[in-house]
Amino acid sequence: MPRFQILLFHGLLWLGILFTQTFLIGGGENIFETIPKSGIIVFGQILLVYSNTQWLFPSFYLKKKHAIYLILGLILILAVSYGVQELIEYFYPRGRFRGIRKISTLTRYWYFLGRSFPLFMAFLLSTIFQVTRLFAIKEKESVQLRSEKLETELKFLKSQTNPHFLFNALNNIYTLTLIKSDKAPDYLL
Questions:
Q1: Which helix (H) or strand (E) is 94 found in, with range?
Q2: Residue 183 half-sphere exposure, CB side, CA atoms within 13 Å?
Q3: 169 Cβ contact list (under 8 Å, min separation 6)
Q4: Are 48 and 127 a contacting pair, CB within 8 Å?
Q5: Which residues contact 43 (CB under 8 A, 6 or more apart)?
Q6: Cα 99 vs. chain centroid, distance in angstroms?
Q7: Which residues, at least 6 apart from 22, have a Cβ–Cβ distance to it below 8 Å?
Q8: Is the dihedral of CA 75, 37, 40, 88 positive or negative?
């Protein structure tokens, strides 16, 4: 696939995710206020997905360092979630809790977890995609290896069969010539 098509596909995918999240997260709010909030979340998802697929997954998961991969993945999710939360609170200080001066710690915690969920799902889906892609590559290599093995075995059997067949045919013709059979010229032909 040409690079332009890949970039176009990624751009359209993230644009679709932005609009989907805008309508899912919006909850009846003003769309012009919801799109930037969703944009901040999608930016966090983009950061997580590409950090995972380009750095974490190849550096740790593929090298069988699964525990380190999980720990760093969770740290990355929490860090990006915190950054997304802070950006949203910076640009929209009143947020969902308009008119409430002090928000309880528990409410803030659940709100943070709610904002973390789309980011966690993006990380999880990118990991599942990478594992599936890796499995498909391994399966394709396995099929190709089996095919090459069968082809090599077939060539080996042919190389063994051809000299044996030729030897038997010549031996039969030789025997026919020794007994001075009239069939010898036909068999030789």
A1: none
A2: 7
A3: 187
A4: no
A5: 84
A6: 45
A7: 31, 34, 35, 38
A8: negative
